[in-house]
Amino acid sequence: MDQPFRPLGVVTGATSGIGAAFAEALAEEGYDLLLTGRRETLLAERSRSLEQRFGIRVEALRVELDRPQEVRRLAERLRSLEVDLLVNNAGFGVRCDFLRTPPRTWEALMDLQVRCPLELTQAVLPGMVARGRGGVVNVASEASFLPVPRNGVYAGVKAFLLRWTESLALELEGSGVTVQALCPGLTRTDFHGRLGEEGARLSRSRWIRWLTPEMVVRASLGDLKRGRAVCVPGWGSRARIALLSLLPRSLRLALLGRFFRSTSGKR
User: Fold this and answer.
1) Catalytic annotation, pick one of 31, 154, 225, 266
2) Which residues, listed in sequence order, are joined to residue 86 by a DSSP beta bridge?
3) Per the confidence metrics, is the pTM higher than 0.85?
């Protein structure tokens, strides 16, 4: 008896947070999944749970995506598959003054959040274009639109993801393939849970309405179906970005500097 057709979704960084929420949402929609992560035990447990609950097939791969050779191996694997949706979600941030951070940290961040999405996307796009369907979500950030002191390289690579995705969307017009830069604001995941007192100050800020991973993923998949190349979940984030863009650059930088000094405890 023939197996029913199910689309294939690939999610990097799927062990927790936004990546785990993508895996859950796609499983619920009937996707088979290929999930990557660094925490092998947690990834295996999550994969088994999705298989049992939704009757899908899940392949779990432990991959260190800040290592170019491992990215290349994963890219080769994806070339052999008919991928319907790729979610480039794996990432990390650094809350430290630029001059105090070891160069290897910035190199790993750029490998993970620039080199990896480029290689994986280039691996799946030819097949998608040939079939006339498919999608790629690049998880960027509200920081794509803003300077972020003590996290400037992170903001820079997220800005790259935004501009590259918009450019790619123009190249792919009429192909049947949709690409999206997903730009969430602060989201309650273990990513921001590592910020300690700085995270607590952000939680108390009147300027921030925190999102959940599920809210972010619902917005992303909804906008992907509408063919929108940029998704900014939450009215608060959209309002901040719009209002700050209207201000003169000097005033915008002054306000942002004051805000980030208040959340870091510096004066």
Assistant:
1) 154
2) 10, 136
3) yes
**Element at 135 (helix H, strand E):** strand 134-139
| CA–CA separation, 136 and 120 (whole Å) | 10
Whether 85 is covered by a domain: the verdict is: yes
Q: Chain centroid to CA 138: how far?
A: 5
Closest among 94, 111, 90 to 102, alpha carbons compared: 94
Burial of 245 (0-12, 13-18, 19+ CB in 10 A): exposed
Largest interatomic CA distance in the chain: 69
Residue range(s) defining the domain that contains residue 245 = 8-264
Edge-to-edge strand list for the sheet holding 177-182 = 58-62, 32-37, 8-11, 85-88, 134-139, 177-182, 230-231
154 labelled catalytic: yes
Residue 3 within a domain: no
Total number of domains in the chain: 1
pLDDT tens-digit series, residues 200-251: 455 555 556 778 999 999 999 999 999 999 999 988 888 888 887 787 777 7
Burial class (CB in 10 A: 0-12, 13-18, 19+), 9: buried
How far is the C-alpha of 216 from the C-alpha of 72, rounded, in Å? 29
Whether residue 177 is contained in a domain is answered as yes
The yes-or-no answer on residue 225 being catalytic is: no
Radius of gyration of the chain (CA): 19
Confirm whether 202 is domain-assigned: yes
Q: Any idea what the CATH number is for the domain that residue 64 is in?
A: 3.40.50.720
- Residue of 46, 145, 38 lying closest to 92 (CA atoms): 38
Question: Which tens digits make up the pLDDT trace of 102-151?
Answer: 888 889 999 999 999 999 999 999 999 999 999 999 999 998 988 787 78
